[in-house]
TrEMBL record:
Official protein name in the record: BTB/POZ domain-containing protein 6
Protein function: Adapter protein for the cul3 E3 ubiquitin-protein ligase complex. Promotes the export of zbtb16/plzf from the nucleus to the cytoplasm and targets zbtb16/plzf for ubiquitination and degradation. Up-regulates neurog1 expression and antagonizes zbtb16/plzf, to promote neurogenesis.
Coiled-coil region: none
Residues annotated as domain BACK: 46-155
GO CC, alphabetical: cytosol
Quaternary state and interactors: Interacts with cul3. Interacts (via BTB domain) with zbtb16/plzf.
Keywords assigned by UniProt, alphabetized: Ubl conjugation pathway
Keyword hit for DNA repair: no
Any Pfam family hit: PHR
Taxonomy, superkingdom: Eukaryota
BP GO annotations: neurogenesis
InterPro entries linked to this entry: BACK, PHR, PHR_sf, SKP1/BTB/POZ_sf
Length: 342
C-alpha cells in the first residue's frame, strides 16, 4: 500500500484480493484479478467462479464461465468443483451451455454431496447427501441421459428414491409417461466454430497421398479459445477409411493427442476428428497442430491458403511448421480446418 510494489503468489492471491476489497485498494484488486485470469484453467475454474461471485468481479466470472462451458467435463471432475458453495453449485447446474454429457454432471453432484457432508461433519449417508444437496439434485437433467447411461449409473446410485427410479424408467419406456421433478430439456451445449484456412480445394492424379507422414501447421490467435479438433480432407477416389493421429503442441510440449479412424465419402468435404477434451489456447502464442494419416487413397488438398483468417471475433494467424514432412504449409496442403470454441 505504501510502495505500490505488488508480488503475488498463487497461495495468497485470494486472501490478497479479499484485503484489497476490504481496504478499498482498487489497483491491488485489479492486479489480483489479472493474476487469477492468467492462472485460470479447468481444475480451478469452479473455485474461482465461486470466489469471483463473492468478490463481485463480473469480468473474472465471465472468464471462468468460458472455461467451465468449453471444458465442462474437466471442470466438473476437478477437485475444485467439490469445494464450491451451494449457490455456485446451483448456478452451474442451471447452465444451458455446459458442454458435456449429463452423466458427468450427475457424478459431479454426487462427489460434491460427499464433500459437503464431510465439511459439515455429517456421516456420509443417502439421507445426508440428499439433505445437503437440497433442490440442487432436481437441477440435474437425468431424463436427458440415454436409457443405458441411466440404468448403469444414476439408477444404481443410492441418491434416488425407489419411486424416483421407477418413474424415470417409466418415463423412458412407457407411452403414458409420469410427471418428473427433473428437467426434461437437453442442455444446448456449445456450437463448435470452424476456421477454414484455404480458399479452394483440388485433387490431381498422383498428386497428394497421406502415406503416414506428418502434416503440420502453426497458428496463433488474438483471443483465448479452446481447440476441440481438426477438419481433414479425405479420399478423392471414393469411399475410404483412414487411421489418424492428431496432436496439439506448444513450444514442443504435447498438450493433447488422439488416435482414431474416420471414413471419408470421396467428396471434397472436410471430416472432423476430435481431441478427447477441448484444449485451452492462449492469445499471441504460436501452437502447432499435426496429423499423421494412413490410407492408400489419393486425397484432396487445399489451395490458396491464407496467412490470416477472421472467424467471428477471433483472428487466426498461420505459419509453416518444421514438423511438416508431407508438404503441408500455409499456401496449400492438409489440415484445412481448426475446430474450436470461443
Amino acid at each position: 500500500m505504501y510502495s505500490d510494489e505488488i508480488d503475488l503468489e498463487a497461495d495468497t492471491v485470494l486472501a490478497t484480493l479479499y484485503a484489497a476489497k476490504k481496504y478499498i485498494v482498487p489497483a491491488l484488486a485489479k492486479a489480483c484479478v489479472n493474476f487469477l485470469e492468467t492462472s485460470l484453467e479447468a481444475k480451478n475454474a469452479c473455485v474461482l467462479l465461486s470466489q469471483s461471485r463473492l468478490f463481485e468481479e463480473p469480468e473474472l466470472s465471465q472468464r471462468c464461465w468460458e472455461v467451465i462451458d468449453a471444458q465442462a467435463e474437466l471442470s466438473l471432475k476437478s477437485e475444485g468443483f467439490c469445494e464450491i458453495d451451494q449457490q455456485t453449485l446451483e448456478i452451474i447446474l442451471t447452465r444451458e451451455t455446459l458442454n458435456t454429457k449429463e452423466v458427468v454432471v450427475f457424478d459431479a453432484v454426487l462427489n460434491w454431496a460427499v464433500a459437503e457432508c464431510k465439511r459439515q461433519g455429517l456421516v456420509v449417508t443417502t439421507r445426508n447427501k440428499r439433505n445437503v444437496l437440497g433442490k440442487a439434485l432436481y437441477l440435474v437433467r437425468i431424463p436427458t441421459m440415454t436409457l443405458e447411461e441411466f440404468a448403469n449409473g444414476a439408477a444404481q446410485s443410492d441418491i434416488l428414491t425407489l419411486e424416483e427410479t421407477h418413474n424415470i424408467f417409466l418415463w423412458y419406456t412407457a407411452s403414458n409417461k409420469p410427471t418428473l421433478e427433473f428437467p426434461l430439456a437437453q442442455r444446448k451445449g456449445l456450437a463448435p466454430q470452424k476456421c477454414h484456412r484455404f480458399q479452394s480445394s483440388a485433387y490431381r492424379s498422383n498428386q497428394w497421398r497421406y502415406r503416414g507422414r506428418c502434416d503440420s501447421i502453426q497458428f496463433a490467435v488474438d483471443k483465448r479459445i479452446f481447440i476441440a479438433g481438426l477438419g481433414l480432407y479425405g479420399s478423392s477416389g471414393g469411399k475410404a477409411e483412414y487411421s489418424v493421429k492428431i496432436e496439439l503442441k506448444r513450444q514442443g510440449t504435447v498438450l493433447a493427442q488422439n488416435l482414431t479412424t474416420f471414413i471419408s465419402d470421396g467428396s471434397s468435404s472436410t471430416f472432423s476428428v476430435w481431441f478427447e477434451h477441448p484444449v485451452q489456447v492462449e492469445q499471441d502464442t504460436f501452437y502447432t497442430v499435426s496429423c499423421i494419416l494412413d490410407g492408400n487413397e489419393l486425397s484432396y488438398f487445399g489451395q490458396e491458403g491464407m496467412t490470416e483468417v477472421q472467424c467471428g471475433k477471433v483472428t487466426f494467424q498461420f505459419q509453416c511448421s518444421s514438423d511438416s514432412t508431407n508438404g503441408t504449409g500455409v499456401q496449400g496442403g492438409q489440415i484445412p480446418e481448426l475446430i474450436f470454441y470461443a
